[in-house]
């Protein structure tokens, strides 16, 4: 390989411009789509404030119904991501959004535990593949050394959906009671499902499947991105001694993929346990007004959003991943533990939950970038889906256990201690991954001209089959 005569400063400036252009084109729109996906997933936590009494559901029934979403999600996530490769991201993302919007609105017709379980399960089936599909889609546009900050911007939607969605949900519950003969929780499901259905049709017009299809990029801009992606694949091969996983079979045999799934499971036990139960925990502390509960439930995510952006940017700046996951996990554990210990005081409980969410949310973008660093092609699509689906089984375990323990003990303290323990487990597990495999591979200042180029007709392996 030979060095180009173009100075690094000029070339880096060109790269900065093109990736800035891609970021402005894709990230705000994808944030909007995932905002409503996440809102439709977790608004059941606010619906519970009135739905549970109206339908005489126990805490165990609610916890099981909230969590069973992730069983459907787990079963269909890997097939969904593989189908995304077959049909293309644009069509498949639109299909997912339209289907989950219809099923989310159908939650307004729940009358029994069985219908509650069935609809939550089907909602998980419908949404399966959306988040890992978006993560895989971004690997078609950004190399791994830019992945944490890019994913940090996209995953910022997680706290934003709660920061905006919690007060919005509380306001809907407050304003829509008995409007048109419906309960406020029924209106909550209907109103928050409509934007997702509309956006599904916008996706078909707005998104491109890959860089080659992007008419809003010049030929020179496309070449910059395609060259960087080729370097990225070469770096993965070198880090894995020429044995990087590219196929579905190789991905399933990769022990580090399964380790990543275990880490994500441990993280999500803590994260989803708190997310689904936070409105109820606040209500139990003595706050009864729906809007006030919504505002308080948003507060921890404000702190989480700030630390999420800082941690992902710092991780890319230092080109380091493991410590930027382990330290936030420990902070999350400490925050959850002390929030349970201080459950008698709304102020101190909320203070420590803010600390917990600061650590918990901070590690997400850095962690989510790892499968794309280890894998490429079909293996990347399948690996991201596998890690996410196994990890999201914790979304069933966490809320269900917390609901059962609350029915048994009358409080959530013991459940929060268990969730904290799972967060702590992430720290030692992440160091079982070799640093050379999970650290981005671009060496600053090196610009190569003669690198292996992707196939001209399929530059991003979007049609690679297993």
Biggest sheet overview: none
Compressed to H and E, one letter per element, the order equals: HHHHHHHHHHHHHHHHHHHHH
Count structural domains: 1
Count of DSSP-assigned helices = 21
In CATH, the topology is named Growth Hormone, Chain: A
Strand content: under 5%
Q: Just give the CATH class.
A: Mainly Alpha
Approximate helicity band: over 70%
Which CATH architecture is right?
Answer: Up-down Bundle
Number of strands: 0
The radius of gyration is 22 Å
- Mean pLDDT figure: 79
What is the CATH homologous superfamily assignment?
Answer: MFS general substrate transporter like domains
Question: Can you describe this structure?
Answer:
The protein is mostly helical and 466 residues long. The chain has a single domain, classed as MFS general substrate transporter like domains (Growth Hormone, Chain: A), CATH 1.20.1250. The longest helix has 35 residues. It is globular. It starts with 7 loop residues before the first helix and ends in a 28-residue tail after the last helix. The relative contact order is 0.16. The N terminus and C terminus are likely disordered.
């Amino acid at each position: 390989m030979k060095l180009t005569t173009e100075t690094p400063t000029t070339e880096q400036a060109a790269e900065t411009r093109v990736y800035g252009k891609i970021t402005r084109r894709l990230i705000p729109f994808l944030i909007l789509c995932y905002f409503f996906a996440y809102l439709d997933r977790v608004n059941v936590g606010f619906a519970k404030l009135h739905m549970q009494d109206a339908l005489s559901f126990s805490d165990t029934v609610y916890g099981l119904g909230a969590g069973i979403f992730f069983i459907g999600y787990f079963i269909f996530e890997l097939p969904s991501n593989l189908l995304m490769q077959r049909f293309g991201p644009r069509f498949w993302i639109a299909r997912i959004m339209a289907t989950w919007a219809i099923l989310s609105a159908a939650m307004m017709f729940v009358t029994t535990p069985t219908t509650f379980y069935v609809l939550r399960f089907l909602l998980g089936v419908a949404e399966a593949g959306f988040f890992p599909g978006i993560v895989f889609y971004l690997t078609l546009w950004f190399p791994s050394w830019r992945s944490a900050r890019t994913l940090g911007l996209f995953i910022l939607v997680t706290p934003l959906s709660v920061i905006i969605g919690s007060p919005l949900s509380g306001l809907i519950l407050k304003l829509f009671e008995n409007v048109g003969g419906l309960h406020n929780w029924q209106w909550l499901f209907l109103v928050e499902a409509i934007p997702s259905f509309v956006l599904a049709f916008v996706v078909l017009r707005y998104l491109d499947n890959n860089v080659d299809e992007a008419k809003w990029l010049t030929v020179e801009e496309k070449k910059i991105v395609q060259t960087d992606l080729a370097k990225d694949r070469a770096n993965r091969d070198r880090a894995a001694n020429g044995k990087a996983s590219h196929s579905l079979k190789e991905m399933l045999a990769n022990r580090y993929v399964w380790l990543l799934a275990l880490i994500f499971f441990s993280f999500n036990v803590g994260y989803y346990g708190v997310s689904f139960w936070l409105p109820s925990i606040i209500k139990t502390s003595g706050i009864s007004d729906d809007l006030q509960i919504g505002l308080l439930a948003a507060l921890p995510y404000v702190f989480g959003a700030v630390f999420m952006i800082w941690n992902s940017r710092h991780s890319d700046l230092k080109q380091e991943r493991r410590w930027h996951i382990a330290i936030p996990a420990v902070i999350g554990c400490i925050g959850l533990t002390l929030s349970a210990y201080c459950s008698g005081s709304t102020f101190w409980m909320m203070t420590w939950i803010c600390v917990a969410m600061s650590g918990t949310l901070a590690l997400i973008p850095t962690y989510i970038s790892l499968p794309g660093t280890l894998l490429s092609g079909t293996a990347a699509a399948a690996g991201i889906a596998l890690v996410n689906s196994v990890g999201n089984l914790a979304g069933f375990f966490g809320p269900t256990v917390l609901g059962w323990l609350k029915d048994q003990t009358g409080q959530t303290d013991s459940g929060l201690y268990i969730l904290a323990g799972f967060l702590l487990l992430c720290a030692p597990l992440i160091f079982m991954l070799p640093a050379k495999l999970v650290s981005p591979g671009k060496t600053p200042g090196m610009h190569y001209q003669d690198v292996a180029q992707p196939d001209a007709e399929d530059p991003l392996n979007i049609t690679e089959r297993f």
